[in-house]
Amino acid sequence: MSERIVGIWELLLMALVHALLPSQRRARRERRLQRRRRHALWLAVHGIDVGPRRIHGVVVRA
């Protein structure tokens, strides 16, 4: 009986871990993109053009 309960808990834990992994990947991706945007803004404030970029989803060319 206790082996069965342990097995059920293991399955539930695995399901929980698999459910959380995509959200962690998404959060990591969002942090990376935010860091890129901040870096590009910092460079622009200091007069350095970083090349083509998107403004409101539209690619802007110099």
Summarize the structure in words.
The structure is a single chain. The chain contains one helix and two strands, in the order αββ. A hairpin with a 2-residue loop joins strand 1 (53-55) and strand 2 (58-60). It is rod-shaped and about 70 Å long. It has one helix at 2-45; strands spanning 53-55, 58-60. By secondary structure, the chain is mainly α.
Keywords:
mainly alpha; 62 residues
Helix content: over 70%
Please compute the radius of gyration using only Cα atoms.
Answer: 22 Å
Task: Please report the distance between the alpha carbons of the first and last residues.
Answer: 70 Å
Largest sheet: 2 strands, antiparallel
Please give the order of strands in the largest beta sheet: 1-2
In quaternary terms, these chains amount to single chain
Mean of pLDDT:
80
Beta content: 5-15%
How do you describe this structure in short?
With 62 residues, the protein is mainly α. The protein has one helix at residues 2-45; strands at 53-55, 58-60. It is built from 1 helix and 2 strands.
Topology:
Blueprint (H helix, E strand, L loop, with lengths): L1 H44 L7 E3 L2 E3 L2
Antiparallel strand pairs: 1-2
